[in-house]
Specification:
Layout lengths: L1 E2 L21 H4 L34 E2 L1 H7 L5 E5 L11 H7 L2 E2 L3 E2 L19 H10 L7 E6 L7 H9 L7 E7 H6 L4 E2 L8 H5 L16 E2 L2 E2 L16 H9 L15 E2 L1 H12 L6 E5 L3 H4 L19 E2 L6 E2 L2 E5 L2 H10 L12 E5 L6 H10 L7 E4 L2 H5 L21
Parallel strand pairs: 2-7, 3-5, 3-6, 6-7, 11-17, 12-13, 12-16, 16-17
Antiparallel strand pairs: 1-11, 4-8, 9-10, 14-15
C-alpha cells in the first residue's frame, strides 16, 4: 500500500514533568539555561532566520548551516533534536553519548528504536500518529515549531529521525538537518551542555495516567503516574484513568486521549505489498514509473557479503539500483551530504540519471532496516526530486530478505555506485 501525499502537514505541545524522577527534570521540565520551565514558554509560529549566502541554497531546503542554526538558537519555538543512531550500540550508543554530553544547549533526544511501532522481527518501524504526537508533547514541540535535527560526530544515520518527522506531517519548511555535527557546532561557538543528563523512553509516556481528553483539562493539569502535578488526582472520576500500558496504548490509538501535537501519516512510506507490485512490473518488462534504490553496500547488494543480521538471504530485489549511502556523504564528515554534482554523478553511475528523468518517476528507497534509505531520500531531494515522489520501504531488507517468497537476484548484473566506505 502506498501512503501518499507529500510533506505538507502543518496543535501544539504538552510537556510532562516527572517530579518523581529527579534526573529527568532537565529533559522534561526545567532547563537550567532558561529562567522558567520549558513548558511555560509561549509557543508561536516561527520564522527561521537564514543567512543569504548559505542555507537553503540546496534544492529543497533540507539543511541548515551551523551559523544559521546558531543564529536561531534560543528563538521562541525552535527545537534542537539529536537524532543520532548507530547500527552497533555496543560500539557507539547514541543515547548514552547524548546523556554524557556535549549536546546542543536545550536539545532533546529522539530515539528511532524507541519511538516506533513494535514489531517482532523489524526495528524502528514508523510510529503511530498518536504515539508520535505524545512524544512531541513531551519534547515541547508543536506543529508550528521549527525542528533542527543534528547528529553526533561522524554519525551518518540522522536522516531516519528527520524522515520520521516528515512522515508524521511536520513539513519540510519546518524540519531541517544541521549541516554538520555537534562537534562542528561546538567548534563554531554554538552553546553546549557538558553536564550529564537523562533521557526519556516511550515507557515513561505509558507510565503516565492521564485524566480524560487532554484538551478538556485545565492548562495546569498534568499527570505522572498517580501524581497530578496540577492538583489532586482524586478530584477526577476513576474511569478517566488508564492504569496500564494496554489501556493507554488503546486510548492513544483510538483517540480517546488527545495529544496537543496533531500528527498525520505515516506519509511517503510503502509496505512490502507495494514493493512486490513494483518488482512484478520490472519482471514482466512492463513500463514503470517507479525506481527502487537500494542503499546497502555493493557487496551486500550483489550477495558477495553476508547481511549483518542473522537469517536473511543475500542479494537484492529484481530491478533495483544500488547507490551505497556512504558514497553520498563527505568522507571527512559523515554528517554532511556530498556536493550536488557528486550526488548526481553517483546516481548516474548506478543508472539513475536524475537530470534527464521523467518528472513523474517515483523513487522507493530501501536499505537494511529503513535507516540509510532515508539518507538516499535526502540526497534525492538535494538533487531536485519532488519530495512527493520519494518513498521509503519501511521494512527494507530485514523484511524482504527474511521472506522465503520474496524474489531475489544474487548476481552482479546490476549497476552499483562507488563504495566509498
Amino acid at each position: 500500500m502506498l501512503y501518499g501525499g507529500g510533506f505538507f502537514g502543518c496543535s501544539f505541545a504538552l510537556l510532562l514533568m516527572l517530579q518523581h524522577r529527579p534526573k529527568l527534570s532537565t529533559a522534561f521540565g526545567l532547563n537550567p539555561f532558561v529562567s522558567r520551565p520549558i513548558f511555560a514558554r509561549r509557543l508561536l509560529p516561527v520564522s527561521i532566520k537564514m543567512a543569504s549566502s548559505t542555507v537553503c541554497s540546496r534544492s529543497h531546503h533540507t539543511f541548515i548551516s551551523i551559523q544559521d542554526a546558531i543564529g536561531n538558537h534560543g528563538q521562541e519555538n525552535v527545537a534542537f533534536v539529536d537524532g543520532s543512531w548507530f547500527l552497533n550500540k555496543a560500539e557507539r550508543n547514541a543515547r548514552q553519548a547524548f546523556e554524557a554530553g556535549p549536546r546542543i544547549q536545550g536539545a532533546t533526544f529522539f530515539d528511532i528504536d524507541d519511538v516506533c511501532t513494535p514489531h517482532e522481527s523489524l526495528i524502528h518501524m514508523m510510529p503511530s500518529p498518536q504515539l508520535f504526537g505524545a512524544i512531541m508533547d513531551i519534547m515541547n514541540i508543536s506543529n508550528d515549531s521549527m525542528v533542527i535535527l543534528y547528529g553526533q560526530e561522524q554519525c551518518p544515520m540522522v536522516h531516519r529521525a528527520w524522515y520520521t518527522f516528515l512522515a508524521m506531517g511536520h513539513g519540510l519548511e519546518r524540519t531541517k538537518v544541521l549541516d554538520g555535527s555537534i562537534m562542528d557546532w561546538k567548534a563554531a561557538g554554538g552553546p553546549v551542555e557538558e553536564l550529564p543528563t537523562d533521557t526519556f523512553y516511550v515507557k515513561h509516556v505509558k507510565d503516565m495516567q492521564v485524566g480524560g481528553p487532554m484538551e478538556d483539562l485545565p492548562n495546569d493539569t498534568f499527570f505522572a503516574n498517580d501524581m497530578q502535578v496540577g492538583g489532586p488526582a482524586e478530584n477526577l472520576p476513576n474511569d478517566t484513568f488508564y492504569s496500564n500500558d494496554m489501556q493507554l496504548e488503546n486510548a492513544l490509538r483510538t483517540n480517546r486521549i488527545k495529544t496537543r501535537y496533531q500528527a498525520t501519516g505515516p506519509r511517503q512510506v510503502v509496505d512490502m505489498q507495494r514493493v512486490l507490485q513494483v518488482v512484478a512490473g520490472f519482471r514482466s518488462s512492463m513500463a514503470s514509473d517507479d525506481i527502487i534504490v537500494d542503499a546497502r553496500s555493493a557487496e551486500r547488494f550483489n550477495a558477495q557479503a553476508p547481511e549483518p543480521r542473522q537469517g536473511l538471504r543475500r542479494g537484492h530485489m529484481p530491478g533495483a539500483k544500488n547507490v551505497f549511502f556512504a558514497s553520498l556523504l563527505r568522507p571527512d564528515n559523515l554528517n554532511r551530504l556530498a556536493p550536488r554534482d557528486e550526488l548526481l554523478a553517483h546516481f548516474a553511475q548506478a543508472g539513475v540519471r536524475i537530470e534527464t528523468m521523467d518528472k513523474s518517476t517515483n523513487f522507493i528507497t530501501t536499505c537494511g532496516s529503513g535507516a540509510t534509505a532515508c539518507t538516499v531520500a535526502a540526497a534525492l531531494m538535494e538533487c531536485g526530486i519532488d519530495p512527493a515522489r520519494i518513498f521509503i520501504y519501511d521494512g527494507s531488507w530485514m523484511e524482504w530478505g527474511a521472506s522465503p517468497d520474496a524474489p531475489i537476484v544474487a548476481t552482479t548484473d546490476y549497476c552499483t555506485s562507488s563504495n566509498l566506505s
